[in-house]
Design goal:
With about 425 residues, the chain is of the alpha/beta class. It folds into three domains: about 5-115, no CATH class; about 120-285, 3-Layer(aba) Sandwich (Rossmann fold), CATH 3.40.50.720; about 290-410, N-(1-d-carboxylethyl)-l-norvaline Dehydrogenase, domain 2 (Orthogonal Bundle). It has 18 helices and ten strands. It has helices at about 5-10, 15-25, 30-40, 45-55, 65-90, 100-115, 130-140, 150-160, 200-205, 225-230, 270-280, 290-310, 315, 325-340, 350-360, 365-370, 385-395, 400-410, and strands spanning about 120-125, 145, 160-165, 170, 175, 190, 215, 235-250, 250-265, 285. Strands 1, 2, 3, 4, 5, 6, 7, 8, 9 and 10 form a ten-stranded mixed sheet that branches. Helix 2 packs parallel to helix 4, helix 4 (about 45-55) packs antiparallel against helix 5 and helix 14 (about 325-340) crosses helix 17 (about 385-395). The radius of gyration is 24 Å and the shape is globular. The two termini are about 45 Å apart.
Length: about 425
């Protein structure tokens, strides 16, 4: 799949650029990043490029034909580039040279369009988190389908997923659907729905899932994988997500920072880690993923409710009067509940909480975003979860109780 069109553009003269533009100009839904980069160059001039365009328009690209179509496109582009260079050389009476030799330019084309071994991957609940990881996997060459809300699906189907990240800004071609049945045939499903929707998502997916598929829970909270596994026949694995991202418009993703995952050690753990690593997603395989989930829960309990109540990003939030002592109280209560439940949490959890304000200073919590959009939040599975577990174990959690009560009041407005 396309990583970027820049490599080819940097390696080509104007005639070559126009030739490439003619092949791709009407394939924007499949090659949007490439076409956006060359759009200002204007209409193509070469007749053979127009013919190539017609041939590709007539091609019905589906999962089975994707790799063959990519290979065909590479050969088409190489032929068009050669012809364009010959014409340019003839006009200028120079040898057919461009800014780099043909081998370098061919490598640039292949880097931009190369298809690696592909896997069908579905993202159930393609909001900000799901679109980020789904988009990264799509850029690595996998056949990704994003299952989400109609407004996002319509935009993604039309233009591709626009990813505005810290390292690239481009449209990424992916499939999109509003129907959970789109998980059929997927070997990996990223479950990214809200914790409040875990059971309904499992029920919708269950009839369609392959028995040998893996469902990876990329959700807030600590018990979603267990809840999914209770309703699904295939393997379910938990993952801990550290990424700051948001949807800033239909089909448009903004990445603010980080992006790593922690997944459980298992028979498939190493394969999953390799899959994500090839997509430029750092992964840690842990034999204490429950402790890592609790560490993420503690971070969420410290930040999410306060960010929601104040509608402030993390960097500004921590500068507030008496905010840090309150966050310490929340963390201490969570640790007391975890210890009583027999959960081992990393000893540097407070330092980890503090780092979030520095690594994600511009991030509004997901709870804050939910309240701003007048949507139900996941607070029942964050501070509310700690409150309930504390009650069951006889551990007082007054700071978590107060934050939980305030968010529930704001939800009810």
């Amino acid at each position: 799949m396309i990583v970027t069109g820049r490599a080819c553009l940097d390696a080509a003269d104007d005639d070559v650029r126009r030739a490439i533009a003619s092949v791709l100009a009407n394939r924007r839904a499949i090659f949007p990043a490439f076409v956006e980069g060359i759009r200002p160059l204007g209409e193509a001039e070469l007749p053979e490029a127009q013919q190539a365009l017609l041939r590709f328009q007539a091609t019905n690209i589906d999962n089975g034909g994707w790799q063959a179509t990519m290979s065909g496109l590479i050969h088409e582009l190489e032929a068009v580039i050669r012809n364009a260079e010959s014409r340019r050389a003839a006009r200028h009476k120079t040898s057919p040279r461009s800014r780099c030799d043909p081998r370098t330019r061919r490598a640039a084309v292949n880097r931009s369009i190369a298809v690696r071994r592909t896997m069908k991957i579905a993202v159930m609940g393609a909001g900000a988190v799901g679109c980020y990881y789904g988009g990264m996997l799509a850029r690595a060459g996998h056949a990704v389908v994003l299952i989400g809300r109609p407004q996002h699906v319509a935009a993604i189907y039309r233009d591709g997923l626009f990813m505005d990240t810290q390292s690239f800004h481009e449209y990424v071609p992916v499939q999109a659907s509003t129907d959970a049945a789109a998980v059929a045939g997927a070997k990996l499903v990223l479950c990214c729905v809200k914790s409040t929707d875990t059971e309904s998502a499992a029920a919708a997916m269950a009839p369609q899932l392959d028995p040998d598929a893996v469902v990876l829970s990329l959700q807030n909270g600590v018990d979603n994988a267990e809840r999914l596994q209770a309703l699904l026949r295939c393997d379910v694995a938990p993952a801990v997500v550290y990424v700051a991202t948001e949807m800033v418009g239909p089909g448009r993703l903004k990445h603010h920072g980080r992006g790593e995952l922690v997944i459980a050690a298992s028979a498939r753990g190493d394969d999953l880690a390799k899959l994500f690593a090839e997509a430029a997603v750092p992964v840690q395989v842990s034999d204490n993923v429950v402790g890592a989930l609790w560490a993420k829960l503690i971070v969420n309990c410290a930040y999410n409710a306060l960010s929601a109540i104040s509608q402030l990003p993390y960097g500004r939030l921590v500068q507030g009067l008496e905010v840090e002592p309150l966050m310490r109280d929340v963390v201490h209560e969570c640790l007391a509940v975890a210890q009583a439940a027999g959960i081992t949490v990393a000893p540097d959890i407070w330092q980890a909480v503090q780092r979030i304000a520095h690594t994600m200073p511009g991030q509004l919590s997901s709870t804050a975003q939910d309240l701003a959009r007048q949507k139900p939040s996941e607070i029942d599975h964050l501070n509310g979860y700690v409150l309930r577990q504390g009650q069951a174990l006889g551990i007082p959690t007054p700071a978590n109780r107060a934050l939980y009560a305030l968010v529930k009041l704001l939800e009810s407005r």
